[in-house]
Amino acid sequence: MPDAVLQLHPLRALIYRLFCLLALGWLAGCAVPFDRDARLSVDVPTRAFVPDVPLIEQEAFFCGPASLAMVMQWAGSDVTQDDIAALAFSPGAGGTYLADMIGSARRSGQLAMTLHNYDDLLAEIAAGHPVIVFQNLGLGFAPVWHYGVVTAYDFDRDAVFLNSGQQDQMVMPFALFDRTWARGDYWGLVVLPPDRLPASGSEIEILQAAAALERVDAFAAAAVLYQTGAARWPDSWLWYFGLGNARYAQGDLRGARQALSRARSIAPDVPEVRANLAQVRSEL
Amino acid sequence: MGILNLTKRGVAIALSAQLVLATQAVTMAQAEMLGTEAAINKYAQHSDRSFLMGELQREDVRAEIVALGVDPAEAEARLAALSDAEVASILAQMEKDNAGADIIGILFTVFIVLLVTDILCLTRFFNFTRCVR
User: Fold this and answer.
1) Are the beta carbons of B32 and A279 separated by less than 8 Å?
2) Taking every annotated instance into account, which residue ranges of this chain make up the domain Peptidase C39-like (chain A) (predicted)?
3) CB of A140 less than 8 A from some CB of B
4) Between B27 and A186, where is the model more confident?
5) How, if at all, do strands A95-96 and A89-90 pair?
């Protein structure tokens, strides 16, 4: 995965759109058609659309923060691209690193999980979740790194719709989108409030995203996500174990005891559950 | 002599006490909560299995298996019979061989098919698979 940095030159804000159009036109000319059957191993609807994702015009260099702000505002937050930039942007690099996209979303108390293929990307859109994608809008030897938010697709119209940090929505044919996304190593990011689960990703990936919230001290968000996961996978003790730990970290000993007791009733023999339950009881 | 014996004894007692304490410290003396992340990493194996089972449900994988004359239900039963450690080592090998490749989907299919064919004595790709015939 490239630790790449994106975004345009400061004085190129105007040229950017023009260059984009040029690059897109050129690439579209030689693009191989997108083979839906070969690229997808799951059934997805012919078209899907995520309503109400705001269009935020990015400030210079801020396509990463602007993308995160769009997705988080869509979910009801009032965070701005400047708020996110303070957590994510690297001024020396003139852009936002992939890892900082994930980290800043988590430090803002959001579930953040990466995806890497069309199955997952389109499944998320079909489930009503916008997805941030990392693209190279230029060429391999002359990269124009960019983050955009995929909000819709339509196979009949051969179109992928992106909120791309400009005033208007960006529409790309699938083949062209594929080329720009392939040059970004098919890096996509789902960012959701912790009371919603992504459509893609295994139970373990979502558990790890929840544990990562604990790591950045977003314990309240972690607790909500553990509860959401426990409702979806009621037979899995790890959700209750995490819930107990997140509640303990917030000083909620009774809540922690309740969650850990639940974990123990599901998995009576796990030493970690017994140890933490004993610890909580000793402090009550 | 007496002193030497005493010293030896003292050292022996001190050492064994330390040993006992050290082993107990792991199980007993715990001053803080054990982390969620470590538990996920330690106990995630059962889900590795469900991941492989999920891969077996894929159309392209099933088609390959059927083309080899294998009943997919039998393939699932065989996969269920592998130990957690064996499942983990399949996934570790997949990850190693997939590193840097863009054709993950194809490689995964190949791995799953090889796993099944291994178990059915048609191939021997994974070193731990037991041939049933």
Assistant:
1) yes
2) 52-162
3) no
4) A186
5) antiparallel
Spatial separation of the C-alpha atoms in residues A258 and A264, rounded to whole Å: 10
Tokens 């919230």 correspond to what residue? A213
Residues B40, A214: C-beta atoms closer than 8 Å: no
Split at pLDDT 50, 70, 90, the class of A46 is: very high
A-facing residues of B in 34-73 (CB < 8 A) are 34-40, 42-44, 47-48, 50-51, 54, 58-60
- Is any Cβ of chain B less than 8 angstroms from the Cβ of A117? yes
One digit per residue, pLDDT tens: chain B, 133 residues? 455 555 566 656 565 555 554 544 444 445 689 999 888 887 775 556 677 777 777 777 777 777 777 777 777 776 776 666 666 666 666 666 554 443 345 556 666 677 777 766 666 666 656 655 4
Residues A98 and A180 in one domain: yes
Q: Clarify whether residues A136 and A159 are in a common domain.
A: yes
Phi, psi of A154 (to 5 degrees): -150, 110
Minimum CA–CA partner of B37 in chain A: A211
d(CA A214, CA B37) in angstroms, rounded, equals 9
The single residue listed with the structure tokens 């269920």 is B80
Q: Please tell me which residue of chain B has the smallest CA distance to A2.
A: B100
Q: What is the CATH number of the domain that holds A239?
A: 1.25.40.10
Is A1 inside a domain boundary? no
Percent of chain A scoring above 70 in pLDDT:
89
Query: Do A134 and A174 belong to one domain?
Result: yes
Q: Is B53 or A118 the better-scoring residue by pLDDT? A: A118
The residue segments making up the domain with residue A240 are 203-283
**Could B34 and A203 be called an inter-chain contact, meaning their C-beta atoms sit closer than 8 Å?**
no
Residue A155 to residue A173: CA distance in whole angstroms: 9
Could you say which of A192, A220, A245 is where a domain stops? A192
Within-domain flag for A223: yes
Q: Residue A140 has which token pair?
A: 């391999």
Number of domains in chain A: 2
User: B32, B36, B60: best mutation site toward chain A, by most A Cβ within 10 Å?
Assistant: B36
